[in-house]
Amino acid sequence: MLGIIGAMDEEVAKIKEQMEDVTVMSKADMDFYKGNLGGKSVVVVRSGIGKVNAAMCTQILVDAYQVDAVINTGIAGSLNAQIDIGDIVLSTDTLEHDMDAVAFGYEVGQIPRMDTLSFEADTELRALAKKVCKEVNPEVAVFEGRVVSGDQFVSDKKKKEWLAETFDGYCTEMEGAAIAHAAYLNRIPFLIIRAISDKADDSASVDYPTFEAKAIEHSVKLLLEFCKQM
Ligand code: ADE
Hints:
Shape: globular
Number of helices: 6
Oligomer: single chain
Strand order of the largest sheet: 5-9-8-6-10
Number of strands: 10
Largest sheet: 5 strands, mixed, barrel
Helix content: 25-40%
Bound molecules: adenine
Radius of gyration: 16 Å
Structural class: alpha/beta
């Protein structure tokens, strides 16, 4: 069983439309849609925005459905001049950029007393997503790099530069690392698939609503074919 998490209704609505044999279970203000997507057994859910919602959602997928992998799909702000609006970023790894225990000698982003700085995405899931993306979104560039997550919509050039320089982040969003963190604790593989909706700088709040729908279209197209080929 594959768990598919999007933070917002807009990010999962089109995926849910394509599902068959659907049953719905509600828990913690989240609706879990279990069914068939492209011949694959999946549970699709809107987690809500931010790290706590995302981590809770992942744990419910593990406890209630015993998912053997989790995909996080959605949109993100680009941290790299090469990565344009509409392009796709597949996570190599991910971390929580707002985790800060520097006062105790930890590197910024390091969760104290955990044995890893970042959470590594599954390489097989990533390779399949890359192949499928080139097939279904040939006009879109696919990048593989670090996704940095925090409870913050980044719309400030200075913050963007800090995230890029400190972490070598490719894109920023608000859930991926929390999903990865929960997946890591449960020892299941994960992948973050994000389409770029804005540049995470001073233009972000204007670009975001303009390009949100197009970016979602790219990630949904990719995910549907991904399930067919999985
Ligand atoms: N999701 C989409 N764009 C984002 C941004 N700039 N910051 C955080 N999350 C985002």
